Amino acid sequence: MLAIMGAMDEEIELLLADLGDRETMEHPGVTLYRGVLDGVPVLLTRGGIGKVNAALTATHLLMAGATRVIFTGVAGGVHPELRVGDIVVSTDLVQHDVDVTALGYALGTIPSEAPAWPADEHLRAAALDAAAEVEGVRVLEGRVASGDQFIASREGVQRLWTQFGAACAEMEGAAVAQVCAKAGVPFVVIRSVSDTADHDANVDYRTFMPLVARHAKQVVRGMLARLGAPARA
Ligand code: ADE
User: Which residues are in the Nucleoside phosphorylase domain (predicted)?
Assistant: First the structure.
């Protein structure tokens, strides 16, 4: 079953509104919706903000039968060419707030874990194909950096760019990636840029987030058409 996850209501409400045959499943701290979107059986959920919420929700999705996971939402642009509204499709994901350097591990690396989690190639290709249909925006493939921080300074952007080569900053993707990787479940993260993570990020985020969330949603809809033959879901 294909699972679609966002962090906030704005990131999933447009999909939830169109979910047919909706069934609600309550789990501790997580509400999952099962139904049919554009003819494709899906699980849909709002996971909440931050890595812990994301990991909890991803775990419940997998336990409910998710075999592919798409994360949709907004992010702060880090790549210098990104502007508000643009779309990032994840190549891989890192946790930029992990620091075990005192024990000799590279910044972002959790001991005994991979330094980054690669997104699934098939899902990436479908996301890129679908994103190409969103008019007037740049689509970039790149590394998504996740951490329990809202990045809102030039220094913060610079750090993620130079130390991680990140295309964008958000707060959930790499946690979902870590959970999915442990279970061998393919995933991809699609983010539209709500701000450029600099000193205006808080204002831009509030202004543009509900608008640009539509771009990521459009990509998900396009992916359903490409991936979602019910027999393969
Ligand atoms: N999500 C959207 N904008 C963000 C930012 N600047 N930092 C972290 N997460 C975000």
Answer: 2-224
